[in-house]
Amino acid sequence: MLRIVLITGISGSGKSVALRLLEDSGYTCVDNLPVRFLHDFIASTREDGLEHVAVAIDVRSPGELDELPGVITSLRAMGTAFKVIFLDASDHTLQQRYSESRRRHPLADRLQRGGKSPSLQDCINTEREMLGPLRDQEHVIDTSDLTPGQLRTWVRDLVQADRAAVILTFESFAYKRGVPGDADLVFDVRCLPNPHYDRTLRPLTGRDEPVAKWLGQFGSVQTMIDDIAGFIRRWLPLYMQDTRNYLTIAIGCTGGQHRSVYVVEQLARQFSDHAPLLVRHRNQPPENIP
């Protein structure tokens, strides 16, 4: 069966990293495919007997992006296994990445007026407006805090997840770095007891047994977990009826290391019967990412 992954999103958000990961995973990859060729390209891959194909489409395809959401809908209606991953990042992160790479934004020439070049922020704002409808209906990964290794892991997990049901994702994050842009529901657990103030627990994470044991002794921690789980169990069926393909629940604490990580792990255990289920820890050091 032919499976297709479409990589799209904001320029500078990591699309090339995602596409290289898929290529290394055995996907036949095509970058910057014009939207008008998508139907014909998929028909051709079927004729060639390909099973795994990845396509990157973004603002480099001028004048056609408005048609892309409709094309995706029609392909899915035809029974095509079509997964879309939308990569995004904060404006500050994008500004930093462009400054480091010294590359021009792909909209810079198109937005030039009277010999005056647009600012990078003008390009980013225009791109967000152009891609807004697509972002609203597809799975979003906010790459602002992610290393290339983390992004590759997250894309791999998402691609491997069965799309027959809602993809339920629990994600920990640090409030001091901002709320992730890919979150559908956000819960703040900064009111819980903080292991950071115990010197022996400070270097550990919420996935380590001493931290888990310490947090587990507090009734407030379990009550918070049960309340969040109860909310999700009550409303998840309605989210599933809303024709959405994913639900990302972000749990935040100050540093994204102890409390939010522990709560995410406990919630994942409570929802272990849901498939597909993904667990992400956004602000843990790379060595703590499986």
Automatic annotation (TrEMBL):
Keywords carried by this UniProt record: ATP-binding, GTP-binding, Nucleotide-binding
Positions contributing to GTP binding: 58-61
Record domain RapZ C-terminal: where: 168-283
RapZ-like N-terminal domain location: 3-162
InterPro entries: P-loop_NTPase (IPR027417), RapZ-like (IPR005337), RapZ-like_N (IPR053930), RapZ_C (IPR053931)
Region annotated Disordered, chain positions: 98-119
Listed Gene3D superfamilies: P-loop containing nucleotide triphosphate hydrolases
Name of a matching Pfam family: RapZ-like_N
Molecular-function GO terms, alphabetical: ATP binding; GTP binding
Keyword Ribosomal protein: no
Keyword GTP-binding attached: yes
Name this protein carries in UniProt: UPF0042 nucleotide-binding protein
Native species: Paralcaligenes ureilyticus
